[in-house]
Amino acid sequence: MSAPFSWIKPEPHGIYIPPADCWVDPSKAVGKALVTHGHADHARGGHGETVATPETLAIMELRYRTGTEDDAGEIPHKAVPVEYGETIRLTGGVDATYIPAGHVLGSAQILLEHAGERVIVTGDYKRRKDPTCPPFEVTPCDIFITEATFGLPLFTHPPIEDEMAKLIYRLAAHPDRCVLVGAYALGKAQRVIAELRRAGHREPIYLHGAMEKMCRLYEEHGVDLGELRLVADYSKDDMRGAIVVCPPSALNDRWSRRLPDPITAMASGWMRVRQRARQRNVELPLVISDHADWGELTRTIKEVDAQENWITHGREDALLRWCQLHQRRARALALVGYDDEDD
Amino acid sequence: MEEFAALIDALVYTRSRNEKLRLIAEYLRATPDPDRGWALAALSDGLDFPAVKSSTIRNLMKDRIDPVLWSLSRDFVGDTAETASLLWPAPDQPPSPPSVSETVELLEAMNRKTVVAELPKLLDRLDPSGRYALLKLATGGMRIGVSSRLAKTAFAQAFEVSVDEVEEYWHGLAPPYPELFAWAADGEDPPDIDNLPTFRPFMLAHPLEETVVDLSDYAAEWKWDGIRVQLVRAGDETRVYSRSGDDISATFPELLDVLPFPAVLDGELLVRGKVQGGEDGGAASFNALQQRLGRKTVSKKMLKEAPAFVRLYDALLVEGEDLRQLPWTQRRARLEALMERLPDSHFDLSRIVEAKDFEHLAAIREGSRDDAIEGLMLKRKESPYIAGRRVGYWYKWKRDPLLVDCVLMYAQRGSGKRSSFYSDYTFGCWDGDPDAGADLLPVGKAYSGFNDEELKKLDRHVRRNTVNRFGPVRETDKSLVFEVAFDSVHESKRHKSGLAMRFPRIHRIRWDKPPHEADRVEALRALVRD
């Protein structure tokens, strides 16, 4: 009988499972990968075999086929879809179950079971409501491997309704201008659009070209985004008084010159800190995040109540300290390749 | 306080200068006295509450949050006031924000003992934005991208008066500036400052850089390496002001009864010292002057060992006559004529540097190795004395800096607009032969000399090459060479290397240079001149 949990190994490039010879969210190409969700720092291209939810596989195929990523790899050689709640057996007697993580479309926590021991890898997650994906499910386990992107006590994401109200108020105050919202192309953009619709905004929303395909993919998976138009097909005057959504990198780009005197907004959890907003030349910070804030991280650790907590990426120092103060066993994993401060 | 907090937030997120002016002007027009006066004082850094310091806030937070979590948060945000405003526990009652004047009254009434109980009560009455505005106002120095000049310009714009006039009255008045608002907003008589020893804004110079001037139009003077001061006597009182308009009279009491007539004079404050002789003699290096700066009281010993005097550059007002509109040549003649009425124990005249032509002047500048000289000043002979920096009138032509190659050792995150970036660098030189196993010794710290692009690259370098963390400090693998520029280097007991640089800044980032080719400590020590 081997030592407890010797079947799971945190390595610099991801979590390795020796008996199954496979990795969770590896940051380099491997033979077999279990992928939690479609963001590029978790879902690299070029693996021999990729196991993920059907939505995540669709996202990966779209991204790596269309070459929207700089370091675009191949289309996954072999794609193995797993539905939420479904368990698949890997070699070496390891079971993997995909459980909703509430982060983006298709995102999952992966529950790994072997020899009666249970380990959960969360990938990224949040506990707030999100009209674009099913909510995070608290699942008991022995080792809880959590993210800590917003792992500092100053991060409290406000209710999204407040942020939508700020956006709609600013839009109404400047009927001759547009509000340009910077939002990550996968997840954040669609959530902002869906929340705008929920808040009663019925007008067409204009998209930067780089966002179109991902929005269509969300629609194909049953997320209603209302009327979307491409910026390239319309004139400056058409867009006065409208909301335009673009990737954060386009916010201060020449591209935005075609817009009618845009008010620059950015939807990100980092917007909670004034200087972060200033660094990005943001006039209207919208504190909207797809990650758990400090309260959610600590609440989740309490609710899951694992014997041990491993912290993968983000502000691990502070979350580690919190665990220490609350007599919870914890360790930080130094994984490379996860985006340090992107949201 | 809600309107003030909203103004502060709007200013933080606004880049355009015109938009900032519009926001402040709108606030000043819409807000009643005395709230708007206090707000104007806060925006122009005119408020100081001795009971509330950054350390006060830190101490308050220590009772409310784990100190480790506090310092990690503070390090991430890069601003104590903002961190505290975000981490302050939400009070049970709904907010009941005080007015700006009530806030100022309460803050003024606090002392170092009562602040511990009183400041929390005030914080509990505000939401996070309000708390941020309160803590910024209370600790002084808003650092929100609004200069004192911008605030005054907005005031002038709000009430359609001239900003030069505002500057002229400003320094004779105290917050909340009722006379200023009465004059500008209500059309009453302008404030009377003739019999007050008030500060007049300095005329400043542009760097010369590539410009070449014709010496028939320009006069040259040494740029002395002391501190620029304005000596003002009016209504039987003399005051000494620093370049920013701070009253530093208490630091230099020997200058307070030596100006025998009412006047406003511009000059360089230096201390006597035996080190720097020569024909311009009598001035010690800046290092000697530094011992006297920032003191509220001065010992007799210090007055004897390092007595201050003023080397005069210009005369703005003399016995009620305003000379500022006269050309420089006429003001200079008046100043020269004044010298015999001034005691030479405390005054001398900054002499004119004669040169045949510009090339000759350049040669003189190159040859000057006196440590009390920073470079040359070039003044257009017909220039009036105008507040601020006007193109074409005055130029400063600093001596070329000294250069040394150092190795990056430690980095810390910056604050303000550089919060989160590793932008503060400690670098070292080799204490012997690096190929024979010598170590690096830290010799200085720099925060400037690179642009935003370079900052991003440096930040990435630090993150990728960290070998150790000591709280907020990262130790790097010592693989990057900086060419560091500095004005001078001095012996110092405060540093392990025994050396301290003056104004070190990153001159070039030598991505290409192997670290073992950086300079040794002795190379730096050879540049010490005092």
Q: Which assembly state applies to the chains in this document?
A: heterodimer
Classified by CATH, the class of the domain at 203-398 in chain B is Alpha Beta
Largest sheet of chain B: 7 strands, antiparallel
Helix- and strand-based class of chain B?
alpha+beta
Q: What is the average per-residue confidence, as pLDDT of chain A, rounded to a whole number?
A: 92
Query: What is the structural class of chain A?
Result: alpha/beta
CATH overall fold name of the largest domain in chain A? Metallo-beta-lactamase, Chain A
Contiguous low-pLDDT stretches of chain A (5 residues minimum) are: 66-70
Number of strands of chain A: 19
* Proportion of residues in helical segments of chain A: 10-25%
Distance between the termini of chain A: 42 Å
Task: Walk me through the structure.
- Chain A has 343 residues and is α/β, with parallel strands linked by helices.
- Chain A folds into two domains: 9-153 and 291-332, Metallo-beta-lactamase, Chain A; 160-286, Rossmann fold, CATH 3.40.50.12650.
- Chain A has seven helices and 19 strands.
- Chain A has a seven-stranded mixed sheet with strand order 7-8-9-10-11-18-19, with helices on one face.
- The longest helix of chain A has 14 residues, at 160-173.
- Chain A is globular and about 70 Å long.
- Mean pLDDT of chain A is 92; it is low at 66-70.
- Among the domains of chain B are: 203-398, DNA ligase/mRNA capping enzyme (D-amino Acid Aminotransferase, Chain A, domain 1), CATH 3.30.470.30; 402-525, Nucleic acid-binding proteins (OB fold (Dihydrolipoamide Acetyltransferase, E2P)).
- Chain B is built from 18 helices and 22 strands.
- Chain B has helices at 2-12, 17-30, 35-43, 54-62, 67-77, 80-87, 100-109, 115-124, 128-139, 148-159, 163-170, 178-186, 286-290, 300-305, 328-338, 358-367, 452-464, 521-525, and strands at 203-204, 206-207, 218-224, 227-234, 237-242, 263-271, 308-318, 321-322, 347-349, 352-353, 373-380, 388-389, 394-398, 402-413, 422-430, 440-446, 466-470, 473-476, 481-486, 488-491, 499-502, 505-510.
- In chain B, the strands form five sheets. In chain B, strands 14, 15, 16, 17, 18, 19 and 22 form a seven-stranded antiparallel sheet that branches. In chain B, strands 4, 5, 6, 7, 8 and 9 form a six-stranded mixed sheet that branches.
- In chain B, helix 1 (2-12) packs antiparallel against helix 2.
- Residues 276-280 of chain B have low confidence and may be disordered.
- At the A-B interface, helix 5 and helix 7 of A face helix 5 and helix 6 of B.
